[in-house]
Write a structure and sequence with these properties.
About 25% of the residues lie in helices and about 30% in strands. With about 80 residues, it is of the alpha+beta class.
Length: about 80
């Protein structure tokens, strides 16, 4: 399956990309995140939330193969 991934803020700085498409065999978001950390080691030290299809989800969520966004923590309240 092809997953479109968008990176924002400090996550985009760590990956040096704002988006990419990856062919994935992973079944959960956590498995894909582990793969991304191997590819982009600077992600290991970053806190971020994950949105799948524009909805915040747990990293244990099953991967649907559509769109993911890695979002940095937000300031304010």
């Amino acid at each position: 399956m092809i997953v479109n991934i968008k990176y924002f803020g400090q996550i985009a700085e760590a990956t040096q990309k704002i988006e990419e498409s990856l062919e994935c065999q992973e079944s959960s978001i956590s498995e894909l995140i582990k793969r991304l950390i191997v590819k982009y080691p600077d992600l290991k030290n970053k806190d971020f939330k994950v949105a799948q299809n524009q909805e915040l989800v747990s990293i244990e969520t099953l991967l649907t193969g559509e769109e993911l966004a890695l979002l940095p923590p937000f300031a304010g309240g």
